[in-house]
């Protein structure tokens, strides 16, 4: 039974995202009935990565500017990792603004691996408990988060995980948080 019918989840990414960190959770969300919307800097397709090898191109549904203009249409936000993606996306003010709008509204946000860099640059991790790829722990701690090394961490509406191996637990936790927000 689909439990997320009529929910819209924005997925923020640019070239260089870790492909499985987008497709794994996205496919689970869609299986639960959610509509996913890929949001990026430009309207051109973006390139996924299989660690350090090029993956597939994915069509973009909206730009950051278009999504930022109407953040209320989204019920949740998914941030895949990938070093190149995460290093670039954190520099986009409109991506940061969309993240802040979701946090301000108390909406579910799920972040995996290097995706936490966008949260750091958006100024939303202070006082939060979360996990990430281990190399981000200093960045997260310096931004005021409590970093822990766990498969998945749920802190209110924030769900975080470390790596692709965590995707099943990450997806389960995000779906549970979205279901709670739907009530």
From TrEMBL:
The keyword DNA-binding does not apply. Pfam families: DJ-1_PfpI. InterPro entries: C56_PfpI-like, Class_I_gatase-like, DJ-1/PfpI. It is an enzyme of class 3 (hydrolase). Keywords: Hydrolase. Its EC number is 3.1.2.-. It comes from the Bacteria. SUPFAM superfamilies: Class I glutamine amidotransferase-like. Residues 8-176 form the DJ-1/PfpI domain. One of its GO terms (molecular function) is hydrolase activity. The keyword tRNA processing does not apply. PANTHER family: DJ-1 PROTEIN (PTHR42733), PROTEINASE (PTHR42733:SF12). Belongs to the peptidase C56 family. This is Protein/nucleic acid deglycase 2. It comes from Achromobacter piechaudii.
């Amino acid at each position: 039974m689909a439990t997320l019918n009529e929910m819209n989840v924005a997925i923020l990414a640019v070239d260089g995202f870790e492909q499985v960190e987008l497709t794994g959770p996205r496919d689970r969300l869609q299986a639960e009935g959610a509509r996913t919307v890929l949001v990026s800097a430009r309207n051109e397709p973006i390139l996924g990565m299989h660690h350090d090898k090029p993956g597939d191109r994915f069509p973009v549904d909206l730009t950051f500017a278009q999504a930022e203009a109407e953040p209320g249409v989204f019920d949740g936000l998914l941030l895949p990792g990938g070093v190149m993606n995460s290093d670039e996306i954190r520099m986009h003010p409109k991506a940061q603004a969309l993240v802040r709008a979701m946090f301000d509204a108390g909406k579910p946000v799920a972040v995996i691996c290097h995706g936490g860099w966008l949260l750091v640059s958006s100024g939303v991790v202070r006082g939060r408990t979360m996990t990430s790829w281990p190399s981000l722990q200093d960045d997260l701690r310096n931004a005021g988060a409590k970093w822990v090394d766990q498969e998945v961490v749920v802190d209110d509406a924030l769900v975080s995980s470390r790596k692709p191996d965590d995707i099943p637990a990450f997806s389960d936790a995000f779906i549970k948080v979205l279901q709670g927000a739907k009530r």
